[in-house]
Write a structure and sequence with these properties.
single chain, 266 residues, mainly alpha, 2 domains, three-stranded mixed beta sheet, 13 helices, 3 strands, elongated
Length: 266
């Protein structure tokens, strides 16, 4: 599958159809509108001012606080606003193991949700613009949304995007090392890739390895032929062995734990 994604002219990532319920369809529309504006460089605070009718003028922090506190509708509309944007990141696609390679190995990945389409690179730009403006205007935004809800929202978005960025960065380092004929491959990067699968969903736990094998350093990928006749424990032990043997270092061991509740290797 990795080769298919890598050679495809375009990979279309299906997030789901147009929502049937009017309320859910409105959330879908808001999420796509906000992401489009963020991708074009519109600051998040300005988007809130436009779509939520927040105070437009540049007030002092005290006046801003008073304006928002005296208008309960700001906080109420803010709750539904964050919920709408979150609806995109709560799509099941974000939690699955196998889909990581769709984005990471594709040269041109586009996400589609109903009729809405956006390239993943553009989605990343929107994400970076969101984080930048969150840092610049956090004090004003937290007045409108509430500090906990704002932090929870940003943490949720980070949890969806950052693992993919880790995998993308690793693939770039791996590609650079191959092109420059370096003898040492960044095995530590692949250990980080494997770590991103811990919280991701897989029908078969063995796919926590097999689902990212297309992103592995060549010596590990060649040695690890998917074999579902092996037990989960055997697959995990084999993976650890091939990483340790190929890298000739103990980089994997810092991930070992003493938790034996799962009856799997540490």
């Amino acid at each position: 599958m990795g080769e298919i994604y890598g050679r495809a002219a375009q990979v279309r990532i299906w997030l789901g159809p147009l929502e049937i319920l009017a309320e859910k369809r409105a959330e879908q529309s808001t999420a796509s509108q906000v992401l489009e504006m963020l991708s074009q460089g519109t600051p998040f605070l300005q988007i809130c001012q436009l779509l939520l009718d927040w105070p437009k003028e540049k007030l002092s922090m005290k006046k801003w606080y008073n304006a928002c506190e005296n208008e309960p509708r700001y906080r109420e509309s803010g709750d539904s606003f964050l919920s709408s944007i979150s609806s995109l990141y709560h799509r099941p696609w974000w939690g699955r193991v196998w889909v990581m390679q769709e984005v990471v190995l594709a040269s041109n990945a586009k996400m589609q949700w109903g009729s809405w389409i956006m390239s993943f690179d553009t989605l990343l730009s929107a994400y970076h613009n969101l984080k930048d403006d969150m840092q610049k205007n956090f004090s004003r935004l937290e007045v409108g949304f509430g500090p906990k809800k704002l932090r929870d929202f940003l943490a949720m978005v980070d949890s969806r995007i950052e693992p993919i960025k880790i995998c993308q960065a690793f693939q770039k380092r791996l590609s650079d090392s191959n092109h420059t004929n370096q003898s040492t491959t960044p095995y530590l990067g692949f250990v980080q890739v494997l770590a991103t699968t811990i919280t991701r969903q897989a029908t078969d736990p063995r796919d926590k390895v097999y689902g990212v094998l297309a992103m592995a350093p060549p010596p590990v990928a060649r040695a690890m032929v998917p074999n579902y006749d092996k037990t989960i424990s055997e697959v995990y032990v084999d993976t650890a062995y091939h990483i340790l043997h190929s890298s000739r270092s103990y980089i994997l061991l810092h991930r070992a734990t003493s938790d034996q509740t799962s009856n799997l290797p540490s």
